[in-house]
Amino acid sequence: MSSKELLGIEPLELKFPFELKKQISCSLQLFNKTDEYVAFKVKTTSPKKYCVRPNSGIMLPRSTCDVIVTMQAQRDAPPDMQCKDKFLVQSVIVNQGVTARDITPEMFAKESGNVVDEVKLKVVYVSPPQPPSPVPEESEEGSSPRPSLSDNSSLNAAELIAATRAYAEPQEKSSEELMRQEISKQGGGFSFMFVMIIALLGILLGYLVKT
């Protein structure tokens, strides 16, 4: 590595939430720390396993570049979820006006006397995020518990009995009052007829005495 770092790289570990038979991507951000034009190239020890976009380019002074690394779907999980794959980010200062089409492998060859900055990145497999567990509706503090079906049945039966009693009591009272009124009427009528008979007997006796 050169004494002067050309690029800032974040993160230095590529973390993939590993899942079988599923493509997984993670992002990598590059930052040009210099006031120069910098060409970069991203290499990996397993080129058939990963897809890097863009895998090379030209960065303007003090600019940033986002790189997406995609791991192809895997059929088998590695032992103990340990990954030995590595990535290498190479960068070199280039002249102004150089474009991505002008990038060649010779630019990053140290044998040609070029000053090449290199940063190695690790690959780490992590467990995929677990979906949140559903929160029960009754878990809110201070909420009143809802009655169950059996509670509703008991409540409805109690209300029905109370309503029946409330309806029956006035009916019984009204029946008793009617009977009392009928008896009083009959009693009043009996007393009136008795008085009339006595009166008629008195008049008859008086007439017979006079004659």
UniProtKB/TrEMBL annotation:
Protein family: Belongs to the VAMP-associated protein (VAP) (TC 9.B.17) family.
Compositionally biased tracts (Low complexity): 142-153
Region Disordered, residue ranges: 127-153
Protein name in the entry: Vesicle-associated protein 1-1 isoform X2
Family annotation (Pfam families): Motile_Sperm
Gene of this entry: LOC105043627
Primary location recorded for the protein, binned into one broad class: membrane
GO annotation terms (biological process): endoplasmic reticulum membrane organization; endoplasmic reticulum-plasma membrane tethering
